[in-house]
Amino acid sequence: EIIKSTLTVNPNGGIYNNNSGLTYLVNDYGTIISLDTPVKEGYTFTGWTLTGDGSLSGNTYTYSDEDGEISANYTPKTYTITYNLNGGDVSGNPESYTIESNDITLNNPSKTGYTFLGWTWEGQDTPTSVTIAKGSTGNRTYTANFEINKYTLTVNPNGGTYNNIAGLTYIENDYGTVITLDTPEREGYTFTGWTLDGDGSLSNNIYTYETGNGTVTANYTIDTYNITYDGLNDEEKDFLNLPISYTIEDEIILPTPSNRLDDIS
Questions:
Q1: Using one digit for the tens of pLDDT, what is the confidence trace for 174-206?
Q2: Using CA atoms, how far apart are residues 131 and 137, in angstroms rounded to an integer?
Q3: Burial, 236: exposed, middle or buried (Cβ in 10 Å; 0-12, 13-18, 19+)?
Q4: Among the four residues 73, 117, 147, 153, which has the most C-beta atoms within 10 Å?
Q5: pLDDT tens digits, residue range 96-122?
């Protein structure tokens, strides 16, 4: 009578013929079978290891007169992580992972003049943080989402008016916005340019918003006005020591010609 023996198939955490546990295959001595390929999520099957009796060549097992057992071997699959950074920069985020990788929390990217809102991906339209938990599988693509920052330029007319406003003017704009400043007015003075404090860049009357708030202060030179005297000759003007010009900051009290001119008559 021909001897029957048992081959025990251990899928080793995977599934063999829809069975996640041990599978027992009984056959006659000398029977040759082709083994199916087990499936284990997150892993690639790499072959069998035989213990006990029988012989194994690849996926072909030959029964002997004693029982045998085979165990499946695997290597973890490598999954890719793709990033759409939308102009941002980030370091330290991996480009791949396996089912055995420890939890991976993605670093947030940065983008000059913008605030990072979070990651989105297929099926997740609301920006959020990302942690790929140990035991996860599948290729992944993440998109960085940003919101442009707004900054304020404070315009100080420095005693004058800017757009008919005598005090400070606050102008809020997005990062990177370029504006042309109007010319302030100050009675008795001539505008000569702006001085910038804080952030942003200034070239003549062109201001560019950068990564912080800025203040521009108007600069002026004082205007000089001429004084003309009618009815007096040069000798009389010199004798009276009359000023020939003044500015808005001067206070001048002119002498009375009728009293002073008696001295040179």
A1: 999 999 999 999 999 999 999 999 999 999 999
A2: 13
A3: middle
A4: 153
A5: 999 999 999 999 999 999 999 999 999
- One-letter amino acid identity for 193? G
Rounded distance between C-alpha atoms, residue 27 and residue 29, angstroms: 7
Q: What does the alpha-carbon distance between residue 47 and residue 75 come to, in Å, rounded to a whole number?
A: 10
How distant, in Å, are the alpha carbons of 30, 34, 127 from that of 136?
Answer: 43, 32, 20
Supply 70's token pair: 């085979």
- CA 118 to centroid of chain Cα atoms: 10
In whole angstroms, what is the distance from residue 117 CA to residue 123 CA? Answer: 17
Tell me the two tokens of residue 154: 């404070």
Contact 150, 166 (CB under 8 A): no
125 contact partners, CB below 8 Å, separation of at least 6: none
CA distance 178 to 151: 12
| Nearest residue to 32 (alpha-carbon basis) of 1, 5, 52 | 5
**Taking the model in full, what pTM does it have?**
0.80
